Amino acid sequence: MELINYIDFLLPRFCLHCNIKLNADEKYLCKRCSDSLRRIEKPQLNLSRIRSLSDCRTLFLFEKEMPVQSLIHNLKYNGNFRIGIYLGKLLGKEYKNVFLNEWNIEVIVPVPLYHTKKAERGYNQSYFIAKGINKITDIKITGAIKRNRYTQSQTDLTLTERILNVQGAFEKKRYKKLDGKKILLVDDVITTGSTVNECATVLLEAGAAKIFAASVAIAV
Ligand SMILES: [Zn+2]
């Protein structure tokens, strides 16, 4: 018996969405659930409204009750930060050329969590997505900004409420040098873009040259 099959036999893994037993070559989702993920490359963000952001890439359309939600939920709430590395690697493989040769990204900045939230969850999921991108592209990661207050989840807010909710919620860490840098902001799910826009504004004010964003999913 091959080693991988043997491990699979001893420690069976299950699809995060439908709970079926995974084959040795499947990761987190079974083939059926994985095939149902809806790919999106360029999210239809209104970049004229999100002025601080030069461009954006994503992998999947966020759909409630679907495998993409199970992936994100397990990444955020079940302590499964390795999913973040896995998804970050997918992003890295898909957009390596864009990040390195089109956007000339010099540093990756994960969207930060407020410190009490991070303590609660134990980790920032966006950091692990960034880590996955770093493994593929070698672009270094810096925690250049912090969230300076608690912000409620953007999920149930209207567009205007979302903008107000994150306004002034981020600040640059004093000792980080960003002058002239082209930065890739990384988040798990981008919804209206208010959060990445707010982060981008802070980074631009701190002297960065251009800000781009990448996320695992986009909710429209
Ligand atoms: Zn499944």
From TrEMBL:
Signal peptide annotation: none
Domain of life: Bacteria
Domain Phosphoribosyltransferase: 133-215
Name of protein: Competence protein F-related protein
Any matching Pfam family: Pribosyltran
Record CDD domains: PRTases_typeI
UniProt-listed InterPro entries: ComF/GntX_DNA_util-trans, PRTase-like, PRTase_dom
Organism: Melioribacter roseus (strain DSM 23840 / JCM 17771 / VKM B-2668 / P3M-2)
Family membership: Belongs to the ComF/GntX family.
